[in-house]
Amino acid sequence: MVARPGKPNQVTGSEATIVGSRRFGRKFNLDSDRRLSHEHLVVIGYKGVSRLLGMIPPSCATIPAYVSGLAVFLFSPNKRQIVRDNLARPTGRKMGWWESNMLALRGYFSYSRYWVEALGLARLSRRELSSRMSFNGFENVFTALGQGKGVIITTPHLGNWDFGAAWLASGGHPITAVMEQLEPRELFDWFSGHRISFGVKVIPASASAFGELAKTLVRNEVVALVADRDIISSGVTVPFFGEAASVPQGVALLSLRTGAPIIPAAVYMLPGGGHYAVAMEPIRFTRTGRLRDDVAELTGLLVSRYESLIRAAPTQWHLFQPNWPSQMENTDLGSTI
Taking a C-beta distance cutoff of 8 angstroms, is the pair 307, 241 a contact? Predict the structure, then answer.
């Protein structure tokens, strides 16, 4: 049988497939280029803001923090509800609408100031860092380092932990920290380089991170971990401000595996660009022999220290996500995830 010729300009099935594939390919490449262009612009934005903030005097840093904090507070009603609930927990009492919103607003101001300061840290000298830092209890860190097993300094998302790390590293104490992997990769690389610029070595949060941290402690150096949120859902459940919550187990496990002491700490932000660092005494813990039980118990002891540090300045606790089962079950609160 002889195939009948198609009508002029008529496209056969196979030709349509090829044409469609080419069009899809062009669209895919266009979408990819747009996405890459947007991601690149995001990285450029962070770099530009970092340079700009590095030129702002400490006494003026609160101005952009207040402006940006107020803007985000006003235009994120669902997130604002979560922040009200989270920051009210450390106070241990119920609040009215006005009081809880003012507490949340101060929380937004605090978090904005953290970013303003953190992005400008690379330009500060040791002298400038020290002039803005007062502290209590850091003899505990130096005493722990004298034992030769390194030290794990851990904090909740409280105050400005980056400022404290930069200050400690500038004094000749190498610090290694774990950072959540960011997308795009270029953004993660920039943040890593930014932290390296003020003395903090960054390890991506991955399966190999534990081994790298253990090697750091063997060298008798400082490991700094921000560990009050279980981002990857692999933690242990312990009481946290009156309700059971999942908390990362890495700090306890690393200490039990290496023998390194755990020192809970916080760097509070003070008016005028100052900071006040608190380093608590190392957590004393006796092994029972069953690792899983020991990890859970030691994590519970750590969380109780976190609670004390947070209660001292609840509005500086940067917890902007649902963190407790009751929040997940609540339709209004859970919808912000």
Answer: yes
Question: Are 260 and 217 in contact, with CB atoms under 8 Å apart?
Answer: yes
267 contacts 279 by C-beta, under 8 angstroms? no
Q: Is residue 5 situated within a structural domain?
A: no
Note whether residue 211 is domain-resident.
Answer: yes
Range of weakest confidence among 2-11, 58-67, 96-105, 271-280? 2-11
C-alpha distances in Å from residue 241, one per residue of 156, 160, 306: 13, 22, 10
Query: Residue 215 pLDDT more than 60?
Result: yes
Query: Which residues on neighbouring strands pair with residue 7, listed in sequence order?
Result: none
Give the residue numbers spanning the domain of 298: 125-316
Q: Is 327 part of any domain?
A: no
Q: Model pTM?
A: 0.84
For the stretch 70-124, pLDDT in tens is 999 999 898 999 999 999 999 998 899 999 999 999 999 999 999 888 888 888 8
In the numeric block, the tokens 């000749």 are attached to 172
The b/e string for 218-253 (b: 16+ C-beta within 10 A; e otherwise) is eebbbbbbbbbbbeeeebbebebbeeebbbbbbbbb
Q: What average pLDDT does the segment 113-141 reach?
A: 91
Least Cα distance to 225 among 249, 207, 193 occurs for 249
User: Domains in the chain: how many in total?
Assistant: 1
Rg (CA), the chain: 25
